[in-house]
Every structure is written in C-alpha cells, then in structure tokens.
Design a protein that fits this description.
Radius of gyration: 26 Å
Number of helices: 0
Number of strands: 0
C-alpha cells in the first residue's frame, strides 16, 4: 500500500481539493482527514527562558534511597 500525505489549510469555503494524486484512475483509496491542533505558547511557559544549574553534580534525594540507609 502506497501512502500519500499532503497538508492543506481549510479555506472559508471549508472545501479542500487535492490535485495530481499519485494513483491510477479506478484505484481504491482510503481518505482520512486529521486535524492538526496548533500548540500555543501558553502550553510551555518556560520555553526560551534563561536557566541556571546550582550544584549540578551533587546527589539529589540521596536520603530517599533504601540502599543508603
């Protein structure tokens, strides 16, 4: 089965036309339409913000390990 993928933006008429498909006339195909939700900047509020490591080589939660007790 050959796959063909194309991205289109839905116009105001809410109609999409796909031209020059790579399939032969009369060939049976399956059409699936999936929405691609656009991620907003609010979803990742820390993206692009400066960061700093404090004691990056110190152990974290060392007292929580049973083997250390």
């Amino acid at each position: 089965m050959d796959n063909f993928r194309i991205e289109k933006i839905v116009p105001k008429s809410r109609t999409i036309t796909i031209n020059k498909l790579p399939f032969r006339s009369g060939e049976k195909v399956e059409v699936i339409v999936k929405s691609q939700k656009r991620t907003s900047r609010k979803r990742y509020p820390l993206r692009g913000k400066p960061y700093r490591f404090v004691d990056p080589f110190e152990p974290v939660a060392q007292n929580d390990w049973e083997a250390n007790q």
